[in-house]
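@channel sequence for tomorrow's demo:
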Amino acid sequence: MRVIIMGCGRVGEQVARLLATEGHEVAVIDFNPVALQRLGPDFKGEAYLGVGFDREVLLQAGIERADAFAATSSSDNANIVAARIARTVFHVPKVVARLYDPRRAEIYRRLGLVTISSTTWGAGRIRELLVHDELNPVFTMGNGEAVLLNVEVPPQLVGRTVRDLSVPGEVLVAGVTRDDRGFIPTLGTVFRAGDLLHLSVLAAAMERVEALLGLGQGA
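structure tokens (generated this afternoon):
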């Protein structure tokens, strides 16, 4: 996969390194030569000096054959302009824009752009760790509206079924790991001692999950 990344700050650099390490073709664009130096001599991708929404710079970076584009600069406006050009002019299949101001997210979604708000995600993650310290999310979906949890089945649920832990639209038992083997359960699957449950949970339902799992009782 060929990926173009606009912005070589800490986020852009890390994304570029991760993708390059995985074997993808990566091209990074930044107008600041000092920022591009972050990549170092061991970087396996390409670096281009220029504005990330300049047509000529994008063409040099190979946007016409790009499979994905990520706008990760420190400017919301620059990110959105670049993302729209990548999507509407060059028809790049996958386009993601970093967003600092979460209040703009809905506007950009209406434009058909996928945005990642580090502000919203970070605030939600901190809240989770402070309020629900016994439930440590391993993956956050969207801007934190839903999370994936790994929880060892509590004693009171041993012998009960997946149906007893399921709440439509709020709590889903997405998988179970038993004896080092994972599987997707049915509503009738019976929990056994030692089961590791993989739960997909609406963030607003975390307290309900704690109650269902019996966490914090007797504290």
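heads up for whoever presents: The CA atoms of residues 97 and 115 lie 5 Å apart.
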